[in-house]
Amino acid sequence: MFAKLFLLFTATSLLEIFILVKVGGFLGAWPTVGLVVVTAFVGSALVRSQGIQTMFKVQERMNQGEMPGQQLIEGMMLVIAGVLLVTPGFVTDFCGLMLLQPNIRAKLAKAAMNKFQLQMVAGGQGGHAGFHGGFTGGQPFTPPPQGPNQQGPADNKVNDGNTIEGEYERKE
């Protein structure tokens, strides 16, 4: 794994230097530097706007009680795109711009979701997010059960005037 990453970073760096020298020889040094700086600024603005859109999609999916797996992966891809666009060079800029394309990003996210399958696990009453990436219990995104015989942060009760304390029992 380390050898593959080392080879990838070394090859990318050498390719970036080669292309920067070729473009610099054609356009000149300052226009080449200016072009790299402009792509970083434009890319950062695009990453920011698409990141905000992705955040709204995540909130929408969570409000519907659904796992926003694909949107979260797309958000990580936008972070990677931002890093690639800010990194000086034309190869990394090209890769970053490809990740900014919504259809390409969606296909890559879907492929990643299929590879790292997120599973929903049905369990008993109530629900809470498990460390293993799935859910145990009823509906996703519901708080863990609170009560005298249940584990949870019941000891940290704060009454801000909007909290109504009581007991309930689920009947099926």
From TrEMBL:
Name listed for the protein in its UniProt record: FxsA family protein
InterPro entries: FxsA
Membrane-crossing residue ranges in chain numbering: 77-100
Domain of life: Bacteria
Organism name: Motilimonas cestriensis
Renumbered residue ranges of the record's region Disordered: 132-172
Keyword match Magnesium: no
Pfam families: FxsA (PF04186)
Keywords: Membrane, Transmembrane, Transmembrane helix
